[in-house]
Amino acid sequence: MTDKEQAGAGFDYPGVGSTEHGRTPEGYSRVLEEARLGSGLDVYRRAADGILGWELQRRAGLRVHADAPRAVPGAQVVSGFGVGPFRLPAPCRVVWVHEASADGVPQSAGFGYGTLPGHPARGEESFEVEINGQGEVWLRIRAFSRPANWFYAAGGMATRAAQRYVTSRYIEGARSLAAEGTSQ
Length: 184
What we know:
This protein is α+β, with helices and mostly antiparallel strands. The chain has a single domain (27-179), classed as Alpha-D-Glucose-1,6-Bisphosphate, Chain A, domain 4, CATH 3.30.530. It is 29% helix and 35% strand. The protein is built from 4 helices and 7 strands; from the N terminus they run αβααββββββα. A 7-stranded antiparallel sheet has the order 1-7-6-5-4-3-2, covered by helices on one side. Strand 6 (121-131) and strand 7 form a beta hairpin. The longest helix has 31 residues, at 150-180. The mean pLDDT is 88.
């Protein structure tokens, strides 16, 4: 995506789509977390369905408002955490999606989304579940970001602690999805 296309799509960071390949633009903090979820196609499918259907964010304690029931390229989602009027909105747009295949291993499913104006950070985050050739199922969360303005930059340690906390909640949510699936 060219700089002009990025600006037209509302993105205000370089490297749109970079989480798909594990790249991080210069000057951005990087997150890479991986967690084993179990083994077998059933575990993989439950986790993939929950990730692509926004359930991972809900299980992490975020309120989710999406313009599509599943992650698709271009879908907009506003998630937020907090309580009542102290809820912090985080608008994003999906930049890439991998759908689960009907069969076969190895494979992966998930999506990446990029921040839009109004988000407290600038950057991208992705959520991907993979089943390897041995049938082991892994969650991979990648992100790169930096504060969107001076106010969030001033938060420093608190901002990084909040990101670590939400990431740990994503991992807990993925483990419950792998074990239970969604309620739908």
